[in-house]
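Entry 14. Structure prediction run on the chain below.
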Amino acid sequence: MLGDQVLTVAQMRDAEQALFDNGTSVDALMEKAAGRAAEWIRRIAARRAVTVLCGPGNNGGDGFVIARILRNSGNLVTVIAPLASTTDAAQRARQRWGSDIGIAGDASGDVFVDCLFGSGLTRPLVNDHVLMLRDLAARHRLRVAIDLPSGIASDTGAVLNEQLPAYDLTLALGAWKFAHWSLPGRGLMGQMRRIAIGIGELSEAARMVARPVIAPPDAESHKYRRGLLAVVAGAMPGATLLAAAAAQRSGAGYVKLLTAQSDPRTPVDIVADDTPLPEALGDNRIAAVLIGPGLGRDDRATALLADTVMHAPALLLDADALTLLRPAMLGREVPLLATPHDGELETLCDSFGINAKSRRDRARALARESGMVILAKGPDTIVAAPDGRLALAPPAPSWLSVAGTGDVLAGIAASRMATGVCPFDAACEAVWLHGEAARRAGPAFTSSQLAERVSEALAAAL
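Output returned:
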């Protein structure tokens, strides 16, 4: 369920150094990476004119290699190089290109290739370079960024300058960087493709969430063996029912509502148990418990949360439960998963004394401090585990920005936990299934329509 690795700038440098230590030269690696990028651009450009903007470092060196290969393939190529090359490899790549350097104000064509600054940039571009980028991008029909668009911070996805151009294609060299999957920078990159150059696998690297492989029930399965999920109802049972509907379609064999009051909307295939909560949670057939959707925030809700945390064999906390949760409640070592949106993530960080700047750092610190797996949901969802593992979700349909879809996500993840999947894997599986259900639901769906498509998403993972 986990795919390609995602590297920081420091990790990427270490990975490249490992190649150099094993005998690969900097020039050979540049030729390999830029050569494969050039093949993408050659196919896009066909025989049309290409302008390559080269910066002073190795990203600029890549640009000179790309320009040389395209010229040798018959393209009309203009190279713009506003700064002298500052690395040995970039200087040699520039020499192999030759002395033909164009003037930015005269350059035009069909394809613009941005090799000004790649990964590693942490400061805004100077004004002259921003104006040059905007001008060149505006005078070309297609725009390609090599590794990263200039002006985007690699480790965070921050956009360091205003009004940077948007690109049609970004070619990541060697490995994905965090900026490729982080807003707001991701929004400028267009289609993204990764250029493999032989980078090794790093055990500590973050990973992309990928399509899970979910096994169907075996021939001897029954409802309890497949997993009993208990969903604690609160003041607003609609959200609870929505989460339960999604859970029924996500693999658990039995979904039961633990509720003090009956609701006429409860489907006939969901059992409602109105026994006192501590007694209901004493059923040793329960594999996991979900609490939070529709819980409320009054004293009764707090008491329900305290009882649930005390008795649940495995627990998913969502919505109101995250607002009410306090560190002192988490004294038992059981599998825990929390699914906060950004506001709830801030609330949890305040409760647990977390003071980190970036969203990613807050999620990782909260996981480490609380012992919970943190599924920080949103347009760039991340999953952080207490042991340091980190997973990033690819973009899901923006139609998910509708009320109730978080309840659906919680129901999916809790159901996966009830089947025996650990919280980190359950979170990653749920994120993929949630996005796939949204793709299958099409535009402008309701949260209940989303829940109905979850079984189709599950089928796609079998």
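The mean pLDDT is 95.
Filed with the rest of this week's runs.
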